[in-house]
Input
Amino acid sequence: MFIRSMTGYAQVRGQVNDRLGFTLSLKSVNHRFLDLHLRMPAEMDALEMQLRRALKSKLARGHVELTLSIERAEAQGIAINRELVGGYINAFRGVAKEFGLTGEPDLNAILKIPGALDGVGGEFGEAAEEAVLAKLDEAVQRLDTMRAEEGKGIDRQLRGHMQRLSEATQEIGKHRTAVSRAYLEKVQLRIQELIGAHADRDRILQEAALLAERSDIREELVRMETHVQHFLGLLDQGGEVGKKLDFLLQEMGREANTLLSKTSGVAGEALRITEVGLGMKAEIEKSREQVQNVE
Output
C-alpha cells in the first residue's frame, strides 16, 4: 500500500432521467484534518448531510470541496410558482404600505427563493438523490487514484531524503573520535587551569564529567538512525501515516540540533560535523514540506 497525497481532482457526470443530468466534482488540498465544503443547488440541501456522511467514511484528511452542478435538457420548461411568488410580493407591498416606505420588490431575489420556480425544485426527488450518491463513489475512487499517483512521487522523494540522512549520520559517526579527542584536549586544559587555581578534587571531577557528557554524540546518532528506519517502515506500511511521519521529522530535527550544539566550538577535523549537520537539517526540512501533503 502506498501513501496518498491530499491533492487531487475528480469529476463525474450522471443522469437522473432524459431531462435532468448533473456533474459532480471533487477537489482536495492539504489540511490538518478533514475539512468539507459543499457547493450545490439550494433545492438539494436535503442531500447535503448524506454527502457529508459518505465523504467522512471514505476520506481521512484534507480540505475537500464538492461541487454539484445541475444540467437540464433544453426542451424542459420552467413554471413559476405564482402562489409563492405572489405571496412574497404582496407581503413586501403590505409592509411597505404599513410603514410608509416606497420601492418595489426585487424579482431576481424572489425567483431565487427555493420553490419559486416549480420546474426546478420538483425534479429533485429520491431518484435524483440516489443517482448523485451512486456517482459519489465513482468520484471518490477517481480522486483516490489521482492522490495515490501523487503519493508515489512523494514517496520517492522522501526515500531519497532518508537515504541522504542515513549517509550523513554514518559520516558523522566516523568523525565521532575526532570530537572526543578535541573535547579531551579541552578537558585537559581546563583541569590544568583548575589545578593552577588550586581547585579541589571534586570541582575538577565535575568539570571533567560535564565536558565528557557534552562530547558524547553516540546517543543522538543512534536515535537518528532509528527514526530514519521507523520513517521508512511507515512508508512501506502506507495508508494514513502523514501525522506520524511529521512527528518523526520533528524528532529528527531535535536530534540534528543537539548534534550541532554538542559539537559547536570544536575545531579541526570535527568541523566537518557542523557542515554535515546543517545538511541533515536541510534534508529534514525538505521532507517536512513533502509530508505536509501526505494523508
